[in-house]
Amino acid sequence: MRRKFARFLSVILASSMMMGISSCKAEQKTFPELSFADSETTAASEDPEATAVVVEDTNRIINISVAVPYSDETMNRLLKLYYLKQTDLMPEGSKGADIDVDFLDSVSTPWILNVINTPSDGISYSSVESWYKGGNVPDIYLVNDFEAVVDGGYAANISNYINGYDMSSSSLYGNALVACMNDSGAFGIPMYQTFMMLFGTSDYVNEDGELPFRNSYNEFKSFLGDIKATYGDETGVVPFAKGYELAPYITNGSYMLKDDYRTNASWNTLLVQDIYYIDYLYKNDLTADIDDFGSDPTISRSAALWLDSSANVQRWSDYYPDTIYYTMLPCNDIDSDLELYASVYPLCLSTKSSEKSFAANFAAFMCFDMDALMLLNRLEPQIGYYPITDSDMVWDIICSNEAFGSVSMIFRQNIQYSYYCPTKGSSLEQKVDDYCSYYFSYEKNHDDDRPEFDVEGLFK
Fold first, then answer.
1. Are residues 374 and 397 in contact, defined by beta-carbon separation less than 8 angstroms?
2. What whole-number distance in Å separates Cα of residue 291 and Cα of residue 55?
3. How many Å apart are CA 89 and CA 140, to the nearest integer?
4. Are 306 and 242 in contact (CB under 8 A)?
5. For the whole model, what pTM was predicted?
């Protein structure tokens, strides 16, 4: 549940808040109750040590490196915006959405920022590991395998270095914050999030047109049946590509990696329903992992529908020009709240950084400050990646995108119903993906009976 924060992570990430949430960090629907002053009247932090650090930082040379998906030009403009706000030199009436970039370019700061460019979904665990082994680690880096990076000891407890920071203008999604925490503290600051969705091509639809944006399990199955009947087996059309990829997401709105569902007595019943549904799709040729020529159906343009992250909306829009459309995963009841399957991409703080406090606070500014987010979305929008703030000004920029604005608006309206899952391509997600692929292809590749779905085996 989102709520306004009058001050930043010096309070939010206090160790007292960590108690009791380690086993439900993604499923928890209500952020722990904290006391904050009215966001409209909150003054800057009164913590004398935090204030002293900020003043010192604006008067000394600081050199840090950041690994993010933005250019040198954009990041240095962001750094200068940070300097203006820290020194109360922000031009009156200016915001990140309209501040004069020529003015930003003219600002001088004692700070030096070295930028290492990464993909939009961040860097892998192996890349972080190689940095540490090579002894040249950026101070801040965007990761796409957060749990592996933390478990490997490659992320500092960022809650130890955040100062009192006025965040009165930000309204944050609490569950996204909690997804970057464990019982020891916060080891990342969520930069943005993505959502799982169905992609389709209007080249293959039934007589009623495209699959509705909200669709039930029965409607989805019926639509795939219509595609099969319309185009027949000889055309090589695959109604739905890689049906096994649905398995972690359709078990009553859960993700099979989450401990709460593994210990829930009703979970096995839900999993059986999940398996039965996907088995039905395979046995009736409504889904396939490869097409008639042994190729990926989405790449060969023979699939009518497929599952993927919103991170790839631009990719598929370019690959399927003028025919791509978007819809949500099937659900039990189309009149219920729209449950989203979200993944967070955090900025982590290097344990090797010699400027941990400055780097941590700049990372916080980059992820949560409204002016910073508006500037980033204005200069280099990351299509399909969505902010952790509910600021109207930030979302208005995102939703104004001609191609993806309408879908973005739907996401924003339903973020409070998100389940937080591992990112696509992370080690945990890949492990589940590989197992599900093996499990649902077992009967085709073996003569003997298929073993039971081994949920516990995924964690060995």
1. yes
2. 62
3. 26
4. yes
5. 0.85
Give the length of the chain.
460
Give every residue of the chain whose pLDDT is below 70, as ranges.
Answer: 1-56, 164-170, 251-268, 445-447, 457-460
Q: What is the pLDDT of residues 151-200, one digit of tens each?
A: 999 999 998 888 754 444 457 888 888 889 888 889 999 999 999 999 99
- What is the tens place of the pLDDT at every residue in 370-404? 999 999 999 999 999 999 998 899 999 999 988 89
